[in-house]
Write a structure and sequence with these properties.
Layout lengths: L1 H17 L12 H21 L2 H5 L2 E9 L5 E2 L1 H14 L1 E16 L2 E14 L2 E15 L5 E10 L8
Parallel strand pairs: 1-6
Antiparallel strand pairs: 1-2, 3-4, 4-5, 5-6
Length: about 160
Amino acid sequence: MKSLSLLATAALAVSAACATNEGGTAAAVDTAAAMAGLDSTRSRYSGYQMAGDAAGLAGLYTDDATLDIYGVPRTKGRANIEAALKADFALRKFTLSQITPGGTTVRTNTDATEIGTYHDMHDVNGAVDHEWGRYVVGLQKGADGTWRLSYVMAFPDSTKADKK
């Protein structure tokens, strides 16, 4: 019975330590501010993608971010992600970039995750194609107040029929 009590006490202590700031008071999570920041990051992501701006888009990733997109080798680090984006933009022009969050979890004032769907259209040498998919992302708020992607996994949505 004692070991169970010690385990419960330890769990409570860890939980309390994680929920306090340096002054020892409970750290309140400003979910509304975080959601506004995440919305801004999502909007800028679509804008940079539509503009074919690899540098701008890569700037929305943390320095050590991981990009894991179905059918493409996993890419780690902002510089490598920028190079991969430049190569992608050289092959196709985005004519539509819709990102629809399905669930967002703001864990702290600097850490969040999100799942959702996306719909992109591309012009590849005059031929238009559609891409419907799902995504999961991890986001971190930097010291400059900007929310950046630390992890992105995206993959085709097998339940969506290809429509022209």
